[in-house]
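Kindly inspect both lines:
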Amino acid sequence: MARSVADPGPVDSAAAPDGGGRRRLPRWRAAMSNHTWRLLDVDGANTLRDVAADFDPDVNPAYPANSPWHGNSGPPAMMKSWNGMGWRSDANEMFGFLLGGHGNYGGNEGYRIRLDAEAPAWTMTGYPSGAKGTASLGFDRAREWLFADGRPRAMHVHDYLLYCPYDDSYLVMGGNSPWAASWTRASRRVWQMDPDSGRYTLRATHASQANHDHCGACWDSASEVAWVLSDAGGPGISRFDPADDSFVSMGLGATDTHNFSSTLVYDPVRDVVLVFGRSMASAFRVYGKRGGAVTSLYTPGRIVGTPPSRPDLYGPAVAYIPQCDRFVVWSQSGTVYPRTDFYVLTPPRSDPLEGTWTWSRHQPVAANTVSPSAAQANGTYGRMVWSSTLEAIMLVNDIDEYFYAYAIDGGML
């Protein structure tokens, strides 16, 4: 059994130009004032709970009881338990799969949503192992990261979900704590999911299998590779090349204790990789590049302003806005600034090592009346993104909640 969901395409979306060739914003975005928040509870929108496999009688063989893959937390764990989302910017599509881990949730179905729609709505993609009409859920006891049907178990994916434009693939670059398994058997594997059929393909395996992966990955558009970070004791930062599915450690960051629950972002202007985390001086560090290799790791020598607080850097929500060449970090904890606010990191125009990086605060206009809900205690990661076509930051915090949008006209803060 495989439930496929057709791509909604450009109909009623910002991807469709108007008669003058300009991007046509959905009505909910066109009605927003600059530098204000909005909850997208528009007619026809839904929450992830509305389509979750556990609550679908055509999918859950035990319905209305808990599914075989329910775990001790059920579908809420897909956002509560150290899980972010992936982002396909060219389609304004957020997606997630293998969301769960530990004893929390085991479903290996996927979900996606087009955020440029008039009514953004989640759909389930693929199906969970053990779904109605398939073999009963079983475990591969020799390979703790797999179910008996050979498909991977859900895990804590942190910031490892990634869209790869090189070959149009949806990937998870790592993770830890496969469901109902020893958490030290997390494995460092690259899985690809076909979002229509639910078929999984193992793309690569790193030589180091026992390390806990609590960090993230990012796509490097210049070198057309993905950079993948592990915890201290792992291989540090590694390069995944989709051209040949090679996975190579760069030999940097392997002993760095600052990596836990961090977020990676590629800087296309300075051609470096930034890692944001709660134990780092001034909130971030920089991996310098030379061609297709990472060759240095450093904290810039000149950083001014007030960086995000430690609670705002646990699984931080970070986005790069190319129009204004700024990085934004959401004040997810609300402990220093309100949850309506952002920390803004302005990079130097020249040398990222010697130039000045500046932290500042961004607030919505006084007329703003909406504030995002509380972030999950275990981080936000990729559930906050920047959409250049919508000219908005998009954020979701819970499977029971709609998205929030923050308007930034022209991408200018």
Q: What stands out?
A: The two ends are 47 Å apart (CA to CA).
